[in-house]
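Hello K.,

You asked for the raw outputs rather than the summary table, so here they are, unedited. I folded two proteins back to back in the same session to keep the settings identical. This is the first:
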Amino acid sequence: MPIIRSTDPDFCVCEISFDALLVIQAEAESRGWATRWSSVEALRGQVKEGAVLLRPLMREERGGVVRAYRCLLLFATAGDQNAGGVATIDLDPAMLESLERIDRDPDVRRALVRMFSLAAGGISMISKE
């Protein structure tokens, strides 16, 4: 799976609703894709209802055609008011195309790329010395 860079034409950052995430999860389940939650109930147990940020991380290609996108999700975790989580989920290319982008401004795009990089690498609250 080739990694999607911020300069690639299919790079985007989208803010999706919790309901949209449930639809994506259900589609991933029905297609038997491995990169998803084990069930909608498991997703509900880990993801707090509200907006979720999504960005494609890798593309799965077969015969020169994109079959699926592996996406990073950044979300508030259920049960903890201040904690966030990062997870991956596979997404149909047509679904990705239908989502509304929030990264059209170059400065915003750079900030979102940095934010996802930090989140995926791990963020911890630290005490200043």
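The second followed immediately with the same parameters:
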Amino acid sequence: MRSRAAGALVLAASLLFGAGAQAQSFVRGDCQGHLALVAPRYDTANHALWYKRFWTGGCDPQIPRCIPGQPNWNNMVTTLLKRGSAAQRPAVLAKACRVGELIGVEWSRSKTIRKIDLDDLRRFNRDLENSSDPLQGLDRLEASARAKLAGR
């Protein structure tokens, strides 16, 4: 009896882990190992679709008033990696992926509850573009995002 219960638990855990990994498949491959082990919790189906939009720039037909295109976080990571030195790239990759997850999950929430909005994304983008060092820019961006989330 215990072996069946243990088997069911292992099966359930593998299904949950697989669903989380599949839900994140739109995130660039080299970011996968830097994201949280558990997929984000989405408030609604639209939250999940907007989170995907944040990373890819593509709009699902179910998203109302979505405009596809740039910028998107997968491309932002590429830009930051190009700007960093060879020695910085592993740290830039890890930081950019984690910061993208932090910002994206919040930005993609319903307008009535989110703490990071489109104007914040535009400011974050400008700040990263104007930063001479991608790691320092990401550190400032993360601090700014966490400050906005602290009011929760």
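The longest helix spans residues 2-23.

Happy to rerun anything if the numbers look odd on your end.

Regards,
P.
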